[in-house]
Amino acid sequence: MKFGKYLAQNMRPGWEEHYIEYDKLKAIVKALTKTELQMPQRDISHYTTSLTVQGLPSNFAGKLGTKDVTQEDFFKEIDKNVEKIGSFTAMQVKQSKALLERLEREVDVAVRNKSPGAPSTGLQAMDVRAKEIGDTFLDLEKYININYTGFYKILKKHDKNLPSTPARQFYMARLHQTPWIQGDYSAVFVTLSRIYSKLRDDVVPESQDLELKDFLRST
C-alpha cells in the first residue's frame, strides 16, 4: 500500500488537518523532478554541494498546477509541517496532563468519601474517563510515529528523484532534535497508572485489571 493511502486510512478522526501534508510534498517533488530531468546534467552538477541541502538555484522551478515551485518551497513546507506537528503534539500532551491531574483529584475525593458497600457508580465513570484519556494518548503516540514515517519517506523520495540536492540525512538529524520526537511522556503514563491503582480495588474487574497491566507494559 502506498504511504499516502495508508496515512489517509490511519488518521484519527478530528485530527486530519494536523498530519503531515504528504500528498502536497509529494506533488512538489514530482514537479521538481520533471524540471530536473529536463535540465542538462552539467547544469545540475554545477550547483551541487555536499555541504548544504540548498544546492540548486532559486530559479530552478517546477510547475505545481499553475504555480512555480522551487527547492526552497519544498524545504519551507517541510519546516512548516514539522512546526505544525510539534505544536499539536505539545498541545495534546498539555491537555492530557491537565485532564489527568483533574481526574486524579476527583478520584482521591471519591475514594476518601466512599462508604463501605456503597455503589461505586461515580468511580466507574472515572474509570471510563481514565480509559478515554489513555486511548487518546495512545493515539497521539501513533500520530507521532506515522508523521515521523511520513517525513522519512518523503525525504527519501526527494533524494531518490533529486539526487543532486540530498536532504534526508540533514532533515532527519534535525527532526531527531525536535521536542515532539525527544519528548519524555512518561509522566502521563505514571499518572494514569496511579489513577488506575486508586480505582482498581473498587471498580476494575479482574479481567479489566489484566488489560490495564498489558496497556501499561505496552507503553
Outline the fold blueprint.
Layout: H1 3-9, H2 22-38, H3 41-46, E1 61-64, E2 67-70, H4 71-113, H5 121-161, H6 168-175, H7 179-182, H8 186-203, H9 206-218
Antiparallel strand pairs: 1-2
Helix pairs in contact: 2-4, 2-5, 4-5, 4-8, 5-6, 5-8
Main location: membrane
Keywords: Membrane, Transmembrane, Transmembrane helix, Vacuole
Pfam family, one: SPX
First CA to last CA: what distance?
A: 27 Å
Beta strand count? 2
Largest sheet: 2 strands, antiparallel
Class from helix and strand fractions: mainly alpha
Rg, nearest Å: 24 Å
Residues in β-strands, percent: under 5%
Helix count equals 9
Low-confidence stretches: 40-60, 203-210
Helix content: over 70%
H and E order: HHHEEHHHHHH
Q: What strand line-up does the widest sheet have?
A: 1-2
How many individual domains? 1
Mean pLDDT: 82
What does this structure look like?
With 219 residues, the chain is mainly alpha-helical. The chain has helices spanning 3-9, 22-38, 41-46, 71-113, 121-161, 168-175, 179-182, 186-203, 206-218; strands at residues 61-64, 67-70. A two-stranded antiparallel sheet has the order 1-2. The protein is elongated, with a radius of gyration of 24 Å.
